[in-house]
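[agent] plan:
  1. take the single chain provided in the ticket
  2. run structure prediction with default settings
  3. attach structure tokens to the ticket
  4. add a short note for the reviewer (M.T.)
[agent] executing step 1
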Amino acid sequence: MNSGESGSMKTKLTNSDVNTFLNTIKNEQKRDDAFVISKLMQKVTKSEPRIWGTSIVGFGDNSYKLANGREIKWFKVGFSPRKANFALYLSPCLKMPERLLKKLGKYKTAKACIYIDKIESINLSVLQELIKASLS
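[agent] step 2 finished; step 3 output follows
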């Protein structure tokens, strides 16, 4: 972990290798999907993927001011290949564009996260537009 990262946040930037992490995913389809999502986010953000905490692949750098006034370092967009689904982390400031969500496919959402089971159940070009919207 980087010593310059914010104080009490549990999830911090690490020096772990992204490909090594993604290759530990046992389910072949989920592993393949994780690489597709990683390549898509890298293409849109023009940023290298980096591991945050133990299981989040993040792209780009951002700072957010918390309600208590403290500033934290975080990624611009990212994802976590969880056992049940993928959590796609978009900008916490983004109000998800309804017109895009209607075209995305099968998903669930909460705040700045979109949860998908597999990429074949969503429209990747719509996901690309959501990532772009998250960066602006």
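[agent] step 4 note for reviewer: The first strand starts at residue 49 and ends at 52.
[agent] ticket updated
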